[in-house]
TrEMBL record:
<feature type="domain" description="Spore germination GerAC-like C-terminal">
    <location>
        <begin position="247"/>
        <end position="412"/>
    </location>
</feature>
<keyword id="KW-0812">Transmembrane</keyword>
<dbReference type="Pfam" id="PF25198">
    <property type="entry name" value="Spore_GerAC_N"/>
</dbReference>
<dbReference type="InterPro" id="IPR008844">
    <property type="entry name" value="Spore_GerAC-like"/>
</dbReference>
<keyword id="KW-0309">Germination</keyword>
<feature type="transmembrane region" description="Helical">
    <location>
        <begin position="21"/>
        <end position="43"/>
    </location>
</feature>
<feature type="domain" description="Spore germination protein N-terminal">
    <location>
        <begin position="41"/>
        <end position="219"/>
    </location>
</feature>
<keyword id="KW-0564">Palmitate</keyword>
<dbReference type="InterPro" id="IPR057336">
    <property type="entry name" value="GerAC_N"/>
</dbReference>
<dbReference type="InterPro" id="IPR038501">
    <property type="entry name" value="Spore_GerAC_C_sf"/>
</dbReference>
<comment type="similarity">
    <text>Belongs to the GerABKC lipoprotein family.</text>
</comment>
<dbReference type="InterPro" id="IPR046953">
    <property type="entry name" value="Spore_GerAC-like_C"/>
</dbReference>
<keyword id="KW-0449">Lipoprotein</keyword>
<keyword id="KW-0732">Signal</keyword>
<keyword id="KW-0472">Membrane</keyword>
<dbReference type="Pfam" id="PF05504">
    <property type="entry name" value="Spore_GerAC"/>
</dbReference>
<protein>
    <submittedName>
        <fullName>Ger(X)C family spore germination protein</fullName>
    </submittedName>
</protein>
Amino acid sequence: MGVPARNLEKNKETGWIAVRLRPFAFILALAACCFVTGCWNRVELNELAITSATSFDKIDDKTWEISYQVVIPSAISAGTGTSGGGGGPSLPVIVYSTKGPTIREAISNSYRESSRKLFFAHNRVFIISEKVAREGLDQIIDLYLRNPDARETVNILVTSGKAKHILEQLTHIEKIPGEAIQKVISIESRNASILPNIMVYELAQATLGESKSAVIPEIYLSGGVRADNMDELKRTHLGSAMKLGRLAVLKEGKMVGWLSKEEALGVSFMSGKFKSGNITFACSPESDGSEKTNVRLLTSTTKLTPKLENGKLTMGINIKGTGILQETNCSLDLNKPANIAQLENGLRQELQKIIEASWKKTKDMKVDVMGFGEAVHHKYPKEWKKMKKDWSSVLASATIELHIKSSIVHVGLSNKSFKLLNRKEGGD
Protein backbone atom coordinates (compact mmCIF):
# COMPACT_ATOMS: atom_id res chain seq x y z
CA MET A 1 0.00 0.00 0.00
CA GLY A 2 1.49 3.37 -0.99
CA VAL A 3 1.92 6.37 1.29
CA PRO A 4 -0.36 9.28 0.45
CA ALA A 5 1.39 12.25 -1.10
CA ARG A 6 -0.07 14.47 1.58
CA ASN A 7 1.78 12.50 4.34
CA LEU A 8 5.06 12.53 2.40
CA GLU A 9 4.98 16.29 2.19
CA LYS A 10 4.29 16.51 5.93
CA ASN A 11 7.22 14.21 6.86
CA LYS A 12 9.60 16.20 4.65
CA GLU A 13 8.55 19.43 6.35
CA THR A 14 9.01 17.95 9.85
CA GLY A 15 12.46 16.59 9.01
CA TRP A 16 13.54 19.91 7.59
CA ILE A 17 12.45 21.72 10.77
CA ALA A 18 14.38 19.19 12.96
CA VAL A 19 17.55 19.72 10.94
CA ARG A 20 17.26 23.48 11.26
CA LEU A 21 16.75 23.25 15.07
CA ARG A 22 19.80 21.02 15.82
CA PRO A 23 22.31 23.89 16.12
CA PHE A 24 20.02 25.77 18.47
CA ALA A 25 19.58 22.64 20.66
CA PHE A 26 23.34 22.21 20.86
CA ILE A 27 23.83 25.84 21.87
CA LEU A 28 21.09 25.55 24.49
CA ALA A 29 22.67 22.40 26.01
CA LEU A 30 26.07 24.08 26.09
CA ALA A 31 24.64 27.10 27.87
CA ALA A 32 22.94 24.88 30.46
CA CYS A 33 26.32 23.35 31.38
CA CYS A 34 27.50 26.75 32.51
CA PHE A 35 24.96 26.70 35.33
CA VAL A 36 25.95 23.27 36.67
CA THR A 37 27.88 23.80 39.95
CA GLY A 38 29.79 20.51 40.15
CA CYS A 39 32.01 19.74 43.19
CA TRP A 40 32.77 23.34 43.99
CA ASN A 41 33.49 22.66 47.65
CA ARG A 42 35.42 19.40 47.39
CA VAL A 43 38.47 18.78 49.56
CA GLU A 44 41.20 16.39 48.48
CA LEU A 45 42.22 13.59 50.84
CA ASN A 46 45.80 14.83 50.95
CA GLU A 47 44.51 18.13 52.35
CA LEU A 48 42.93 16.51 55.43
CA ALA A 49 44.36 15.43 58.78
CA ILE A 50 42.22 12.44 59.79
CA THR A 51 41.71 12.50 63.55
CA SER A 52 41.23 9.18 65.36
CA ALA A 53 41.01 10.50 68.94
CA THR A 54 40.66 13.86 70.71
CA SER A 55 41.48 14.83 74.28
CA PHE A 56 40.29 17.75 76.41
CA ASP A 57 42.45 19.31 79.13
CA LYS A 58 42.27 22.58 81.02
CA ILE A 59 45.48 24.54 81.66
CA ASP A 60 43.65 27.00 83.88
CA ASP A 61 40.08 28.18 84.35
CA LYS A 62 40.15 30.14 81.08
CA THR A 63 42.30 28.10 78.71
CA TRP A 64 41.49 24.84 76.95
CA GLU A 65 44.17 22.50 75.64
CA ILE A 66 42.81 20.28 72.87
CA SER A 67 44.99 17.44 71.59
CA TYR A 68 44.53 15.46 68.39
CA GLN A 69 45.70 11.99 67.44
CA VAL A 70 46.18 12.28 63.68
CA VAL A 71 46.60 9.22 61.47
CA ILE A 72 49.59 8.97 59.11
CA PRO A 73 48.14 7.02 56.14
CA SER A 74 51.50 6.00 54.66
CA ALA A 75 52.50 4.31 57.93
CA ILE A 76 49.35 2.21 58.34
CA SER A 77 48.64 1.24 54.73
CA ALA A 78 48.78 -2.46 53.96
CA GLY A 79 52.17 -3.84 53.10
CA THR A 80 54.08 -0.83 54.39
CA GLY A 81 55.09 0.13 57.91
CA THR A 82 58.16 2.04 56.88
CA SER A 83 58.60 5.71 56.32
CA GLY A 84 58.73 7.00 52.82
CA GLY A 85 62.26 8.37 53.09
CA GLY A 86 64.64 6.49 55.35
CA GLY A 87 63.06 3.05 55.20
CA GLY A 88 62.90 2.70 59.00
CA PRO A 89 59.75 2.11 61.04
CA SER A 90 57.33 5.01 61.10
CA LEU A 91 54.86 6.07 63.77
CA PRO A 92 51.24 5.36 62.77
CA VAL A 93 49.98 8.56 64.40
CA ILE A 94 51.16 11.93 65.60
CA VAL A 95 49.76 13.92 68.51
CA TYR A 96 49.77 17.68 68.77
CA SER A 97 47.89 20.23 70.83
CA THR A 98 46.37 23.67 70.45
CA LYS A 99 45.10 26.12 73.04
CA GLY A 100 42.32 28.68 73.25
CA PRO A 101 39.65 30.23 75.49
CA THR A 102 37.02 28.05 73.81
CA ILE A 103 37.20 24.59 72.27
CA ARG A 104 36.34 25.83 68.79
CA GLU A 105 38.95 28.59 68.91
CA ALA A 106 41.57 26.09 70.04
CA ILE A 107 40.68 23.91 67.03
CA SER A 108 40.86 26.95 64.73
CA ASN A 109 44.36 27.68 66.01
CA SER A 110 45.49 24.38 64.46
CA TYR A 111 45.47 26.09 61.05
CA ARG A 112 48.48 28.12 62.15
CA GLU A 113 50.71 25.08 62.64
CA SER A 114 49.26 22.25 60.55
CA SER A 115 49.55 21.86 56.79
CA ARG A 116 46.23 20.00 56.72
CA LYS A 117 42.71 20.69 57.91
CA LEU A 118 41.53 18.61 60.87
CA PHE A 119 38.89 16.06 59.83
CA PHE A 120 36.80 14.63 62.71
CA ALA A 121 34.39 12.33 60.82
CA HIS A 122 36.55 9.30 61.75
CA ASN A 123 37.17 10.33 65.35
CA ARG A 124 36.76 7.28 67.60
CA VAL A 125 37.03 8.51 71.19
CA PHE A 126 36.98 11.60 73.39
CA ILE A 127 39.32 11.49 76.39
CA ILE A 128 38.37 13.94 79.17
CA SER A 129 40.60 14.88 82.08
CA GLU A 130 39.11 14.65 85.57
CA LYS A 131 39.63 18.41 85.99
CA VAL A 132 37.48 19.10 82.93
CA ALA A 133 34.85 16.56 84.03
CA ARG A 134 34.51 18.12 87.48
CA GLU A 135 34.10 21.60 85.98
CA GLY A 136 31.39 20.34 83.63
CA LEU A 137 30.98 18.82 80.18
CA ASP A 138 28.34 21.20 78.78
CA GLN A 139 30.76 22.83 76.33
CA ILE A 140 31.99 19.50 74.96
CA ILE A 141 28.48 18.12 74.48
CA ASP A 142 27.35 21.38 72.87
CA LEU A 143 30.30 21.24 70.45
CA TYR A 144 29.50 17.62 69.57
CA LEU A 145 25.83 18.27 68.89
CA ARG A 146 26.59 21.26 66.64
CA ASN A 147 29.22 19.50 64.55
CA PRO A 148 27.71 18.12 61.30
CA ASP A 149 30.65 15.68 60.95
CA ALA A 150 30.11 14.13 64.40
CA ARG A 151 29.76 10.35 64.50
CA GLU A 152 27.17 8.62 66.65
CA THR A 153 29.75 6.02 67.65
CA VAL A 154 32.20 8.37 69.40
CA ASN A 155 33.04 6.93 72.82
CA ILE A 156 33.80 9.15 75.81
CA LEU A 157 36.15 8.25 78.66
CA VAL A 158 37.66 10.13 81.59
CA THR A 159 41.16 9.94 83.03
CA SER A 160 42.47 11.12 86.38
CA GLY A 161 45.67 12.47 84.84
CA LYS A 162 46.39 14.52 81.74
CA ALA A 163 44.15 13.41 78.88
CA LYS A 164 46.79 14.14 76.26
CA HIS A 165 49.03 11.38 77.69
CA ILE A 166 46.44 8.76 76.78
CA LEU A 167 46.59 9.85 73.14
CA GLU A 168 50.38 9.60 73.12
CA GLN A 169 50.36 5.95 74.22
CA LEU A 170 51.07 3.44 71.44
CA THR A 171 49.72 -0.12 71.33
CA HIS A 172 51.09 -3.40 70.02
CA ILE A 173 48.12 -5.08 68.39
CA GLU A 174 46.23 -2.14 66.91
CA LYS A 175 48.19 0.37 64.83
CA ILE A 176 45.82 3.25 65.63
CA PRO A 177 45.56 3.77 69.42
CA GLY A 178 42.20 5.57 69.17
CA GLU A 179 40.68 2.53 67.50
CA ALA A 180 42.26 0.29 70.14
CA ILE A 181 40.62 2.26 72.96
CA GLN A 182 37.21 1.96 71.34
CA LYS A 183 37.60 -1.79 70.87
CA VAL A 184 38.74 -2.31 74.47
CA ILE A 185 35.69 -0.60 75.98
CA SER A 186 33.38 -2.39 73.53
CA ILE A 187 34.81 -5.82 74.40
CA GLU A 188 34.69 -5.09 78.15
CA SER A 189 31.07 -4.00 77.95
CA ARG A 190 30.03 -7.16 76.10
CA ASN A 191 32.06 -9.72 78.05
CA ALA A 192 32.40 -8.34 81.59
CA SER A 193 29.57 -5.75 81.89
CA ILE A 194 31.42 -3.85 84.61
CA LEU A 195 31.92 -0.63 82.67
CA PRO A 196 29.34 0.55 80.13
CA ASN A 197 30.17 1.52 76.57
CA ILE A 198 29.13 5.20 76.72
CA MET A 199 28.87 7.31 73.59
CA VAL A 200 28.64 11.09 73.60
CA TYR A 201 25.01 11.23 72.50
CA GLU A 202 24.10 8.76 75.28
CA LEU A 203 25.86 11.01 77.77
CA ALA A 204 23.80 13.95 76.50
CA GLN A 205 20.56 11.97 76.81
CA ALA A 206 21.38 10.83 80.36
CA THR A 207 22.37 14.35 81.42
CA LEU A 208 19.04 15.71 80.15
CA GLY A 209 17.01 12.76 81.46
CA GLU A 210 14.77 12.55 84.48
CA SER A 211 17.58 11.75 86.91
CA LYS A 212 20.12 14.16 85.31
CA SER A 213 22.84 11.65 86.21
CA ALA A 214 25.34 9.83 84.02
CA VAL A 215 28.45 7.66 84.16
CA ILE A 216 31.70 7.57 82.15
CA PRO A 217 34.33 4.79 82.22
CA GLU A 218 37.85 5.61 83.38
CA ILE A 219 40.94 4.96 81.30
CA TYR A 220 44.42 5.27 82.77
CA LEU A 221 48.07 4.40 82.08
CA SER A 222 49.59 1.65 84.18
CA GLY A 223 53.32 1.29 84.59
CA GLY A 224 56.08 3.84 84.39
CA VAL A 225 57.47 5.07 81.06
CA ARG A 226 54.88 5.88 78.38
CA ALA A 227 55.18 3.93 75.14
CA ASP A 228 55.19 6.97 72.88
CA ASN A 229 58.03 6.01 70.50
CA MET A 230 58.81 3.16 68.12
CA ASP A 231 61.65 1.84 70.29
CA GLU A 232 59.12 0.85 72.98
CA LEU A 233 57.13 -1.18 70.42
CA LYS A 234 60.17 -3.30 69.61
CA ARG A 235 59.84 -5.00 73.00
CA THR A 236 57.40 -7.82 73.79
CA HIS A 237 56.25 -6.00 76.91
CA LEU A 238 55.44 -2.29 77.04
CA GLY A 239 56.60 -0.21 79.97
CA SER A 240 53.06 1.12 80.33
CA ALA A 241 49.65 0.18 79.00
CA MET A 242 46.18 1.69 78.69
CA LYS A 243 43.68 0.07 81.05
CA LEU A 244 40.09 0.59 82.06
CA GLY A 245 39.53 1.38 85.71
CA ARG A 246 36.71 2.89 87.76
CA LEU A 247 33.44 4.52 86.82
CA ALA A 248 33.09 8.31 86.97
CA VAL A 249 29.71 9.56 88.21
CA LEU A 250 28.20 12.80 86.91
CA LYS A 251 25.33 14.85 88.22
CA GLU A 252 23.87 17.67 86.12
CA GLY A 253 26.83 17.47 83.77
CA LYS A 254 29.56 17.63 86.44
CA MET A 255 31.61 14.79 87.87
CA VAL A 256 30.92 14.21 91.57
CA GLY A 257 32.92 11.07 92.35
CA TRP A 258 34.10 7.56 91.48
CA LEU A 259 32.61 4.08 91.77
CA SER A 260 34.89 1.07 92.18
CA LYS A 261 34.69 -1.82 89.72
CA GLU A 262 32.49 -3.84 92.10
CA GLU A 263 30.20 -0.85 92.68
CA ALA A 264 30.06 -0.28 88.92
CA LEU A 265 29.00 -3.90 88.47
CA GLY A 266 26.15 -3.35 90.92
CA VAL A 267 24.98 -0.34 88.89
CA SER A 268 25.10 -2.50 85.78
CA PHE A 269 22.74 -5.02 87.39
CA MET A 270 20.33 -2.42 88.81
CA SER A 271 20.12 -0.47 85.56
CA GLY A 272 19.51 -3.61 83.51
CA LYS A 273 22.66 -3.13 81.41
CA PHE A 274 24.41 -6.31 82.49
CA LYS A 275 24.97 -8.53 79.45
CA SER A 276 27.34 -11.28 80.55
CA GLY A 277 30.23 -11.64 82.95
CA ASN A 278 32.01 -13.71 85.58
CA ILE A 279 31.02 -13.82 89.25
CA THR A 280 33.36 -15.37 91.84
CA PHE A 281 32.12 -16.41 95.27
CA ALA A 282 32.93 -18.69 98.19
CA CYS A 283 31.85 -22.33 98.06
CA SER A 284 29.81 -21.92 101.23
CA PRO A 285 29.04 -19.10 103.68
CA GLU A 286 30.77 -21.06 106.46
CA SER A 287 34.07 -21.48 104.57
CA ASP A 288 37.14 -19.31 105.15
CA GLY A 289 36.99 -18.09 101.55
CA SER A 290 39.95 -20.13 100.30
CA GLU A 291 37.67 -22.34 98.18
CA LYS A 292 36.16 -20.37 95.32
CA THR A 293 33.74 -20.93 92.47
CA ASN A 294 33.42 -18.94 89.28
CA VAL A 295 30.17 -18.79 87.34
CA ARG A 296 29.73 -17.01 84.05
CA LEU A 297 26.31 -15.39 83.78
CA LEU A 298 25.12 -15.70 80.20
CA THR A 299 21.76 -13.99 80.60
CA SER A 300 20.42 -11.43 83.05
CA THR A 301 17.24 -9.37 83.12
CA THR A 302 16.27 -6.62 85.54
CA LYS A 303 12.79 -5.30 86.29
CA LEU A 304 12.29 -2.20 88.44
CA THR A 305 9.02 -1.91 90.34
CA PRO A 306 8.66 1.31 92.36
CA LYS A 307 6.23 1.44 95.27
CA LEU A 308 5.04 4.57 97.07
CA GLU A 309 3.59 4.25 100.56
CA ASN A 310 2.98 7.26 102.80
CA GLY A 311 5.29 9.34 100.66
CA LYS A 312 8.21 6.92 101.03
CA LEU A 313 9.72 5.23 97.99
CA THR A 314 10.69 1.57 97.86
CA MET A 315 12.25 0.23 94.67
CA GLY A 316 11.69 -3.42 93.95
CA ILE A 317 14.59 -4.87 91.94
CA ASN A 318 13.84 -8.24 90.35
CA ILE A 319 16.84 -9.92 88.72
CA LYS A 320 16.81 -13.21 86.85
CA GLY A 321 19.96 -14.81 85.52
CA THR A 322 21.32 -18.08 84.20
CA GLY A 323 24.94 -19.14 84.08
CA ILE A 324 27.43 -21.92 83.61
CA LEU A 325 30.05 -23.22 86.01
CA GLN A 326 33.50 -22.32 84.70
CA GLU A 327 35.83 -23.06 87.60
CA THR A 328 35.64 -24.49 91.08
CA ASN A 329 37.91 -25.91 93.75
CA CYS A 330 34.99 -26.81 96.01
CA SER A 331 34.94 -30.34 97.37
CA LEU A 332 31.43 -30.99 96.06
CA ASP A 333 29.84 -33.79 94.11
CA LEU A 334 27.84 -31.89 91.49
CA ASN A 335 25.77 -34.97 90.66
CA LYS A 336 23.79 -34.13 93.77
CA PRO A 337 21.08 -31.46 93.22
CA ALA A 338 21.58 -30.19 96.77
CA ASN A 339 25.17 -29.19 95.98
CA ILE A 340 24.08 -27.35 92.82
CA ALA A 341 21.48 -25.55 94.91
CA GLN A 342 24.24 -24.62 97.40
CA LEU A 343 26.28 -22.99 94.61
CA GLU A 344 23.23 -21.18 93.27
CA ASN A 345 22.54 -19.83 96.73
CA GLY A 346 26.17 -18.66 96.99
CA LEU A 347 25.79 -16.89 93.64
CA ARG A 348 22.63 -15.12 94.82
CA GLN A 349 24.29 -13.99 98.03
CA GLU A 350 27.29 -12.62 96.13
CA LEU A 351 25.05 -10.69 93.73
CA GLN A 352 23.07 -9.30 96.66
CA LYS A 353 26.26 -8.16 98.39
CA ILE A 354 27.51 -6.43 95.21
CA ILE A 355 24.21 -4.65 94.55
CA GLU A 356 23.68 -3.52 98.14
CA ALA A 357 27.20 -2.04 98.30
CA SER A 358 26.61 -0.23 95.03
CA TRP A 359 23.25 1.10 96.20
CA LYS A 360 24.76 2.42 99.43
CA LYS A 361 27.50 4.28 97.55
CA THR A 362 25.19 5.87 94.96
CA LYS A 363 22.70 6.74 97.68
CA ASP A 364 25.41 8.53 99.67
CA MET A 365 26.41 10.42 96.52
CA LYS A 366 22.73 11.29 95.88
CA VAL A 367 22.93 10.28 92.23
CA ASP A 368 20.50 8.16 90.26
CA VAL A 369 22.64 6.37 87.69
CA MET A 370 20.39 3.29 87.89
CA GLY A 371 17.40 4.89 86.18
CA PHE A 372 15.06 4.80 89.20
CA GLY A 373 13.63 8.20 88.27
CA GLU A 374 12.46 6.92 84.89
CA ALA A 375 10.68 3.99 86.55
CA VAL A 376 8.93 6.26 89.07
CA HIS A 377 7.92 8.68 86.31
CA HIS A 378 6.30 5.90 84.29
CA LYS A 379 4.34 4.43 87.20
CA TYR A 380 3.54 7.59 89.16
CA PRO A 381 3.48 10.47 86.64
CA LYS A 382 1.49 12.83 88.88
CA GLU A 383 3.59 12.23 91.97
CA TRP A 384 6.76 12.51 89.90
CA LYS A 385 6.04 16.17 89.08
CA LYS A 386 6.52 16.96 92.77
CA MET A 387 9.25 14.44 93.49
CA LYS A 388 11.60 15.44 90.67
CA LYS A 389 12.10 18.92 92.16
CA ASP A 390 13.90 17.34 95.11
CA TRP A 391 14.75 13.94 93.67
CA SER A 392 18.13 13.75 95.43
CA SER A 393 16.50 13.94 98.86
CA VAL A 394 13.80 11.42 97.88
CA LEU A 395 16.47 9.04 96.64
CA ALA A 396 18.50 9.44 99.83
CA SER A 397 15.54 8.27 101.93
CA ALA A 398 14.47 5.48 99.55
CA THR A 399 14.98 1.76 100.16
CA ILE A 400 15.37 -1.22 97.87
CA GLU A 401 13.89 -4.73 97.89
CA LEU A 402 16.05 -7.27 96.10
CA HIS A 403 14.61 -10.40 94.50
CA ILE A 404 17.30 -12.45 92.78
CA LYS A 405 16.71 -15.72 90.97
CA SER A 406 19.86 -17.26 89.54
CA SER A 407 20.39 -20.75 88.23
CA ILE A 408 23.39 -22.77 87.03
CA VAL A 409 22.30 -24.57 83.88
CA HIS A 410 25.55 -26.32 82.97
CA VAL A 411 28.53 -27.54 84.99
CA GLY A 412 30.83 -28.61 82.14
CA LEU A 413 32.21 -32.01 81.20
CA SER A 414 32.92 -33.12 84.77
CA ASN A 415 30.39 -33.39 87.57
CA LYS A 416 33.13 -33.34 90.19
CA SER A 417 35.89 -30.88 90.87
CA PHE A 418 39.43 -32.07 90.23
CA LYS A 419 40.14 -31.42 93.89
CA LEU A 420 37.45 -33.91 94.91
CA LEU A 421 38.64 -36.48 92.36
CA ASN A 422 42.20 -36.14 93.60
CA ARG A 423 41.10 -36.72 97.21
CA LYS A 424 39.24 -39.88 96.24
CA GLU A 425 42.21 -41.19 94.28
CA GLY A 426 44.46 -40.54 97.28
CA GLY A 427 42.01 -42.32 99.57
CA ASP A 428 42.02 -45.39 97.41
